[in-house]
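Data card: per-record layout.
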Amino acid sequence: MRIIFTLYFTFFTALLFSQDVAIVKYKGGGDWYSNPTALPNLVKYCNDNIDTNINENVQTVEAGSIDIFQFPFLHMTGHGNVFFSDDDAENLRNYLISGGFLHIDDNYGMAPYITKELKKVFPNSELIEIPKDHKIFSSAFNFPNGLPKIHEHDGKAPQAFGIFKDNRLVLLFTFESDLGDGWEDPEVHNDPEDVREKALKMGANIVKYVFEN
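The structure for this 213-residue chain is written out next.
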């Protein structure tokens, strides 16, 4: 028990002082590796515009690895199936209640799978829509209308959902927005510059919110 406590204390201390971010690799066959330039571009944007000092060499960590505790911010995306083993779910739950944060960005088609798997992580919690006046929409840049629309999927409005623990937002699920596509290199999707800028600004809001709360 003392060894476990020491480990979690060490991980919690690392979360307090680290500004590094990582991509989550998960099981199930979904393309966790999609949008390879997205998070590195967001990191550079944050370092250039909101005074962060994040390592631009973005790491990949597995959902069930204790390595996730080195990173206060985890990003997860994909189009398809997601599967968390019991060990994965327990590891993510411990990480999130210890001070970590997970941003899941639906790259189109991920929603039915991830919502089911999140019940393993927090069986008694529901994803709830985050109100537009939440400070995640204004921590660095103002988004009075909430989550911006970056790519069209099914003609639905973009929505931001969250899971809260002790009044702290520990998990953000962005749906029908596709922020990650907007963070990619310009030639990947040929988005107009103002659309990419909106995506990067909203991403910077998420990062700033995580590091300051």
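Known properties of this structure: The longest strand covers residues 168-175. The CA atoms of residues 182 and 196 lie 5 Å apart.

See the next section for split statistics.
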